[in-house]
Each structure stands twice: as structure tokens, then as C-alpha cells.
Design goal:
334 residues; mainly alpha; Multidrug-efflux Transporter Regulator, Chain: A, Domain 2; two-stranded antiparallel ribbon; 19 helices; elongated
């Protein structure tokens, strides 16, 4: 079969067939009387083998080795191809992500594009100082790609940089909340923690709703951060978690402050006092926890807290009794 007919049947151009010949990949086994290349059935079969291997991403040199080297190990080459393909996909994914972020910034000219690229590069810098400056400047220099800020804050380990990123996100309002909500469901505990910390700094009704949902999170750290912020926002649903924090001695001072803020801003002072007293009288509460609960009653107004302090001033635990008596003496009318 002459080269033109082979090209038509195989879909490989005559030019490529000549290239294969020059490389020694497929040499026609015969020549016509006129000196034209003439391909046998085996030659054509080899052409199809070459095209099949090329479809896997093999170079022509690798194709030649695969077909002619008796020691060739296909499994090893396939493993290399898998690794190379994964690296290529990762690189393409990074490029796609960068292009999406540039598009999200809605550039109006190439200067905007270059500015966004510079910001993305700075946010990915190995220098904490450069990342922090990028976070702070992202607000001053125009609309920042919120998706990039969210990814940066969820992966940031430096506390100063993380603080700057949270501030930058807060300036964007609720634009990043959907992505931060995904962070709350991350399998990584640190990412969940950073997500709830970031949400807590966004003064928005949607953020408050997300924090209320976070109170039911299986992650106790997420629940505690949510409760502290909700307490400051006057959301009474945070009370049980805040009381638990006092009992456990985890950020108990902050939890007590949040309870005090809640008690002063709402009609839940007696309810808060009753919950503190309930935990005080449980036999399972250890002495240090009882002392912390007593101290937490100090800034809870109302008769329920005052009566509880009066009873506690006669407590068998001397530290609790003295603390309660002191607090009671400092209260109005004490």
C-alpha cells in the first residue's frame, strides 16, 4: 500500500509518515517499481501501535523504546506518565484558579490585571512580612479577590498575617462567608478553627447565623469560638457552651466576660445565673470549677445571682465561701 493510501486509512498525514520513516519508527518494507514507499500489513499495524502509545502522552522516543526494546517495562513508564499527568493537572488547576481570581476582581485594564497578579504572588510569598503587607494593601488598592483572601486565611499559620487577612476579609462584608462556611466543614481541625475565627470578625447578620450553626459543630474548638463571639453579639443560644467553658477552665475568663455582656444586654440574667448555680450544685463539679463558676456570678445582675452568692458564702469549700462573700459585699446593696 502506497503512502497516500496509508495516510487516508490511518488518519496519519503523509508528512508524519515520512517523519516516522526518518526516525526509524516505521520503515516501509518495500518500494514500488516507481520507487515509492510501499507499506505492508505489519507496517500499518505498527503505525496504529505508535498512534495508540502517543495517545497516552508518550514522546516518539519513548514510543520507539516501547516497541523495540525487549527489556522495556510498561508498568514503570505508565507510573511515570501518571505522575507527570498529575503534575500537569495540578499546574493547570493553579493556573485556572489564578485566572478565576483575576476575573473575580473584574479588571478594567491590564494595569488592574498586573496589580491582581502581584497581590496573588505576595499572598503566596514565603515571607510572613510580605504576606501581611499584601493583606493590608489588598483593601487600600481596590477590590481584592475574596476567594484568594479566604484561601490565604484558611492556610495561614502566622498569627499576625492571619489577623491582617481576617481584617481584610471583614472589609469585604459577607462576600467570603460562603467559602468560609465550607472551611467549617474541612477535615482539618486547624482550617475549621481559622474559618470560625474569620467568620467571627465579620459584623454581618449572615455571619451571626453561621456562628449559631457552628454551636452544633462536632468540633469543640469551633463551638467555643462561636460561643464567645455570639455572647458578645448578645445571642443567648451561646450560654450553655460558655458555661461549659467555665467549668472546663478553657478561656474561662473570656467566657465569663461574654456571659456578663449577655446578662447586661438582655433579659437572660436570671437564666444565666440559674445555669451557673445548676452546675455549682452538681456533685461532679470539682473544686476549681466551682470557684470559677462562683467568680462568674460576680458580673451577673439580678436577685438569682445575689441569692446564689449569699448561699455560697456559707459553702463548705472555704475558697468558694470567701470568694462569694467578697463578691456579695461588692454588689450594690451588698
Amino acid at each position: 500500500m502506497l503512502i497516500g493510501e496509508v495516510a487516508r486509512r490511518s488518519g496519519v498525514s503523509a508528512r508524519m509518515l515520512r517523519h516516522y520513516d526518518s526516525l526509524g519508527l516505521v520503515r516501509p518494507t518495500g518500494r514500488s517499481d516507481g520507487g515509492y514507499r510501499e507499506y505492508s500489513g505489519e507496517d500499518i499495524q505498527r503505525i496504529f501501535h505508535i498512534e495508540s502509545l502517543r495517545s497516552l502522552g508518550l514522546s516518539l522516543r519513548e514510543v520507539g523504546r516501547a516497541l523495540d526494546d525487549p527489556d522495556f517495562r510498561p508498568a514503570e513508564l505508565v507510573g511515570d506518565l501518571i505522575r507527570q499527568t498529575r503534575e500537569r493537572i495540578a499546574a493547570e488547576t493553579r493556573l485556572l484558579t489564578r485566572l478565576r481570581r483575576i476575573g473575580a476582581a473584574e479588571p478594567t485594564d491590564w494595569q488592574d490585571v498586573l496589580q491582581t497578579v502581584a497581590l496573588l504572588q505576595a499572598l503566596g510569598s514565603k515571607s510572613a512580612g510580605r504576606r501581611q503587607r499584601a493583606a493590608l494593601s489588598s483593601v487600600e488598592e481596590g477590590p481584592a479577590p475574596v476567594e484568594a483572601l479566604v484561601e490565604a486565611v484558611l492556610n495561614e499559620t502566622d498569627p499576625n498575617v492571619a489577623g491582617a487577612l481576617r481584617w481584610a476579609l471583614a472589609q469585604a462584608g459577607d462576600d467570603g462567608l460562603a467559602l468560609l462556611a465550607e472551611g467549617l466543614a474541612s477535615p482539618m481541625a486547624e482550617v475549621r478553627k481559622r474559618a470560625v475565627q474569620s467568620i467571627a470578625e465579620i459584623p454581618d447578620g449572615t455571619a451571626t447565623a453561621l456562628l449559631q450553626e457552628a454551636l452544633t459543630s462536632p468540633d469543640i474548638v469551633v463551638r467555643r469560638y462561636a460561643a464567645l463571639e455570639l455572647g458578645a453579639r448578645g445571642v443567648a443560644e451561646a450560654v450553655p457552651t460558655l458555661v461549659d467553658m467555665i467549668v472546663d477552665g478553657t478561656n474561662d475568663v473570656d467566657a465569663a466576660d461574654a456571659l456578663s455582656a449577655l446578662a447586661s444586654r438582655s433579659a437572660s440574667a436570671d437564666r444565666i445565673a440559674a445555669m451557673l448555680v445548676d452546675r455549682l450544685v452538681r456533685d461532679t463539679v470539682a473544686s476549681p470549677a466551682r470557684l470559677r463558676l462562683t467568680q462568674a456570678l460576680a458580673d451577673i445582675p439580678g436577685t438569682t445571682a445575689s441569692r446564689a452568692l449569699a448561699d455560697l458564702s456559707q459553702d463548705e469549700d472555704r475558697a468558694v465561701a470567701l470568694t462569694a462573700a467578697y463578691i456579695l459585699g461588692m454588689r450594690p446593696g451588698g
